[in-house]
């Protein structure tokens, strides 16, 4: 049926959750179907009702095989997809970081993802998210890849600021050494409300994400 529909707008029909066949193939872990759909003309830029492209879903679920197909078969669309935030303000790199898929983080960076891109809720970068998650391995990876340790959230908080009151002293010590001296003290303002939540309307399809930062 896919071959018979090559180039047909039918391939991009969306269901009531605005998912295309491509979204569903990624969700069902069917990389061969993903490849056939793409080669038949399915548009990888289309988003579901949460603003996720098929690549966003692959990064969120950790689907390495579907990720590989999506990034290799349609490289023309890749730059725009990598910079596209979903309706929660998260791009593909943010999702891979939140779910601690380090191999996908490395792959995204090698493909040109902006390591210092800010999520649109509070302005956190991937490094801020890694600190929030207290993921030392991810922090080390991002720092090694050139993440800006002095990047500030919309409230003026550096990644180091988010280590205050947190348990992982290794993360705090590593960032203390790298952070500019004038960014080591907390800003003289009300504490940033760094509790934020990313929720999908489809609880069966996507888990709620809750990342708790410095309060």
From TrEMBL:
<comment type="similarity">
    <text>Belongs to the NF-kappa-B inhibitor family.</text>
</comment>
<dbReference type="InterPro" id="IPR002110">
    <property type="entry name" value="Ankyrin_rpt"/>
</dbReference>
<keyword id="KW-0677">Repeat</keyword>
<dbReference type="GO" id="GO:0034142">
    <property type="term" value="P:toll-like receptor 4 signaling pathway"/>
</dbReference>
<dbReference type="GO" id="GO:0071356">
    <property type="term" value="P:cellular response to tumor necrosis factor"/>
</dbReference>
<dbReference type="InterPro" id="IPR036770">
    <property type="entry name" value="Ankyrin_rpt-contain_sf"/>
</dbReference>
<dbReference type="GO" id="GO:0005829">
    <property type="term" value="C:cytosol"/>
</dbReference>
<keyword id="KW-0040">ANK repeat</keyword>
<dbReference type="InterPro" id="IPR051070">
    <property type="entry name" value="NF-kappa-B_inhibitor"/>
</dbReference>
<dbReference type="GO" id="GO:0051059">
    <property type="term" value="F:NF-kappaB binding"/>
</dbReference>
<feature type="repeat" description="ANK">
    <location>
        <begin position="88"/>
        <end position="120"/>
    </location>
</feature>
<comment type="function">
    <text>Inhibits the activity of dimeric NF-kappa-B/REL complexes by trapping REL (RELA/p65 and NFKB1/p50) dimers in the cytoplasm by masking their nuclear localization signals. On cellular stimulation by immune and pro-inflammatory responses, becomes phosphorylated promoting ubiquitination and degradation, enabling the dimeric RELA to translocate to the nucleus and activate transcription.</text>
</comment>
<feature type="repeat" description="ANK">
    <location>
        <begin position="17"/>
        <end position="49"/>
    </location>
</feature>
<protein>
    <recommendedName>
        <fullName>NF-kappa-B inhibitor alpha</fullName>
    </recommendedName>
</protein>
<feature type="repeat" description="ANK">
    <location>
        <begin position="122"/>
        <end position="154"/>
    </location>
</feature>
<dbReference type="Pfam" id="PF12796">
    <property type="entry name" value="Ank_2"/>
</dbReference>
């Amino acid at each position: 049926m896919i071959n018979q529909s090559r180039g047909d707008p039918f391939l991009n029909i969306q269901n009531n959750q605005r998912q295309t066949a491509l979204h569903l193939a990624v969700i069902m872990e069917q990389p061969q179907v993903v490849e056939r759909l793409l080669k038949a003309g399915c548009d990888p830029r289309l988003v579901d009702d949460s603003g996720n492209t098929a690549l966003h879903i692959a990064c969120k679920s950790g689907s390495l095989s579907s990720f590989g197909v999506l990034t290799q078969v349609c490289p023309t669309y890749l730059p725009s997809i990598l910079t596209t935030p979903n309706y929660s303000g998260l791009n593909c790199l943010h999702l891979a970081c939140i779910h601690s898929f380090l191999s996908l983080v490395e792959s995204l960076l090698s493909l040109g993802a902006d390591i210092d891109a800010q999520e649109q809720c509070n302005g956190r970068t991937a490094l801020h998210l890694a600190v929030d998650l207290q993921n030392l391995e991810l922090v080390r990876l991002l720092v090694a890849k050139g993440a800006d340790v002095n990047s500030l959230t919309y409230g003026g908080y550096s990644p180091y600021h988010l280590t205050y009151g947190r348990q992982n002293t290794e993360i705090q010590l590593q960032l203390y050494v790298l952070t500019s001296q004038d960014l080591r003290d907390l800003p003289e303002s009300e504490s940033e409300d760094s509790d934020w939540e990313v929720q999908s309307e489809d609880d069966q399809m996507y888990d709620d994400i809750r990342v708790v930062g410095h309060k």
